[in-house]
Structures are given as C-alpha cells and as structure tokens.
Amino acid sequence: MSTASTAEPQPRRRTLAPVADAENAATLTRAMTYAVLIGLFVAGAWMYREAYYQGLPFPKNTFLFVPGSHFGDLYDFFKPLQAHDPLNYPYAVYPPFSYIVMEPFVWAGYQGSIVLWVGLAAVAIGGFLARQLSFLPPIDRIAAVFALTFATYPFLISLDRGNIELVITVLLVALAWAWQTDRWVVAALAIGAMTAMKGYPIIFAAPLLVGRQWRALALCIVSAGLLTVLGSIYYNFDVVHTWNLLHARLTFYNDTYVIGDAGLAYGCSLFGPLKLLLVDVLGGDAATVRSAIPYYEAATVVILAGSVWVLWRRRLALWQQMTLLVCLLNLLPTVSGGYKLLHLVIPIGLFLRDGSRDPFRWVYMLLFALLMIPKAYFFFRLGGSVSDIVVLDPLLMTLLVVLVVVSAFRTREETAEPAPAAAAATEPGYSPA
C-alpha cells in the first residue's frame, strides 16, 4: 500500500466497484447455485429415505434439530422477557444487550416472531446478495439470491432454532456495506453492537487496528461498552448483581456445554473435533476435556494474533478478510452452533462479486458450497445424535482459512509498515485493512 501523505481525500464511494471479470464471476455464481440446490435435494432425498423407507427415528430422519422444538432458542426466552427478568433464566448466558435485541420478537408474538425473523433475513441477506450479484442477468440473479438465502443448511437450521445469531448476520451485512463504501462510523457501530451481543465479534475490529483507524476503533469499544451497560440497567439497575448472575450462568454453561456434550451436536467449533479425539479416540473423560481447555484457549490467542499479523503485513481483498474473520468467529469459541454458518453468506457474496481469477477460486467455491449444504449422513456417539457435520464443517472452514493465508503469502507484495487508511483509501481496489 502507498504511504504517501500528500494524497488528496477521495469522495466516499456510493456504489460498488466494478466486477473485475464479470464472466468469471457469473460462472462461479451459477456453479455455486447449482451445487447448493443439488446438495439440498440430495440431503432431502436421503432423509426421506431414512424416515419413510428405513423407518429410522430422530436424528437420522432429519438434518434439523429436535422435532417439536422449532424456534425454541427464541421461544424459550419469551416468558422470562415478558416478566422483564431474562437474567434469572437458567440458560441466560448472553451479555445483557442480547435480550434487548430479543424484545421486538416477543412483542411480535409466537407466530409474528417467525414472520419478523424471516422478513429480516430476506431483506438483509437477500438484499445484500442481490446487490453483490448485480452483474448477473435478472433470472440468474433471482435464482442465486433465492438459493443462497433460503435454500442453505445454515438458513434452515437457523430458522428451525429461531436463533438470535441472525441479528449478528444482519450486522455483518451492515459492516460489509460500510467497508465497501468507506463508512467507518457505521462499521465501528456495527462491530460495537455485535460485540455487545456476543463478545467474540470484537475480532472484526482487527481491520480498524491494522488500518490505524483510531477514532473508529475507539467508537467501536465505547459503543460496545455503552450497549452492554444499557442491557444491564434496562433489566436491573444493580449492575454488579447482573454480572454475578451472568458469571454463574457461564459456569453452568461451561460445565454442561463445553465440558459436557450438550454443545457438541450440530456444532461447528474446532473444539468439537478436539473433544471427539480426546474422549472417543484417546479414551479420555470429562477431566481430560477440562484440562485441555487452557491449552485450547492459548492456541486461539496465538491464531488470533497470527491472523492480525496477516491482515497487517499482507494485502487481502475484502472478501478474503471477511472469510478469515467469519471463519475464526465460528471456529474458535469452544461452542458454536451450526446456525453460525449463516454468517458465511457475507464472504460468499463478496467472493462471487470479486470476479478475479484467483488460482484457488474453484476450490473456494467448492468449500463455500459444501458449507452451505446439509451433511448429516453418518451418526455416532450420544446414542447416534452427533453427526459428521461436527467434524466436516470445522475442517472445511479451517481449509478456507489456510487457503486465504496461503493466497496472501503467494503474492510477493508486502508492506513495510501498515499504511494509514486515509492514504490507502486512494489506491485502486482498496479494501479496509
């Protein structure tokens, strides 16, 4: 990146940059659309066979969650939220601001909340993809948007659970739009809101750090703090008591979901395959899993630090940055539900629009497509409730991360020091790192 300090300020981009190779981008998009639709059809046919010809019960007759508990992740909080006391609910393990985000769904009611959830997903995800795929003819564009919005496993499992993680996806849409159009205030507020909801999305502040966007970084941290405090005092002015409750809930969550197996099935965290290795292959027990957690957490710190270094020292396209950060967001927490795969629609949209002739482009497309389709064909452990997705999804995202890093080091252009964002923004093809 150029470090020239004499560059004149450039006007803010109101429209997306042109596609580098529209024909190549269209070919990749059509291929992914077909792959996702075929994958969904094959999975549906397989589950139909298992249910009606083999007579197998749950979980072998569906790639979704427990029948009869649809939209349960939201519905379970309805009564605590209506009582204005969600923090005393035994499964209240989110930061307090998350429950404020849930309130509109409670106001909409049981049926209305589903309509609201689907409408929010359609407008945010569908609108984002429609904008990114503007290079396609109308009929192809409609088919691709439909397939990548409504026909993917991440969307279906997220809808089945009614998980509030959808709001994180919506905020990621806002973040991608802000980065594409150089709206750093919007980017900082989006990261702050995500962080106030779940904590881990603070990793999306890495481009602000390496781009020396100190004001935006400060705004991100301050907004996250203020929204967290708002969530605390909205339900209970005793902030200390609120955080003591959260700490107690997290202790329960750690014992049940991290050490225990409640968070293993349908997961996409790297800790899932590690747990299977320690217990099922090496013969360990709960104590073994507990003792492995400090080493796993230390490894995540090293991975995060290395990723920030890559963002700092190597110039990545925006879709590569998003792929790297979204995969880390899904992989590194000790528990990650399959609904978090929905975040991948953001780097997918950016990747398809990029249109560059990256030598790995077909490998990227295949990995993205495999992450979008159901894969629960083989079951093991816990009476057969843990399927192959526990291993396959983390493996696929790990391969994506490795490919992004390898691509970064294949290019010989390396900055001697991180360029100020104001100067870097004047370069053609600039992306915010």
Brief characterization of the structure:
Helix content is about 65%, strand content about 0%. The protein has helices spanning about 20-55, 70-75, 80, 95-130, 140-150, 155-160, 165-180, 185-200, 205-210, 215-235, 240-260, 270-280, 285-315, 320-330, 345-355, 360-370, 390-410, 420-425; strands at about 380, 385.
Please explain how this structure is put together.
The chain is mainly α and 433 residues long. It has one domain (22-247, 267-424). 64% of the residues lie in helices and 1% in strands. The protein has 18 helices and two strands. The protein has helices spanning 22-53, 72-75, 78-82, 97-132, 138-150, 153-161, 165-180, 184-198, 206-210, 214-235, 239-259, 271-281, 286-313, 318-331, 345-354, 361-372, 389-410, 421-424, and strands spanning 379-380, 386-387. The chain has a two-stranded antiparallel sheet with strand order 1-2. A hairpin with a 5-residue loop joins strand 1 and strand 2. Helix 4 (97-132) crosses helix 10 (214-235), helix 7 runs antiparallel to helix 8 (184-198) and helix 14 (318-331) packs antiparallel against helix 17 (389-410). It is globular and about 55 Å long. The N and C termini lie close together (10 Å). The relative contact order is 0.15.
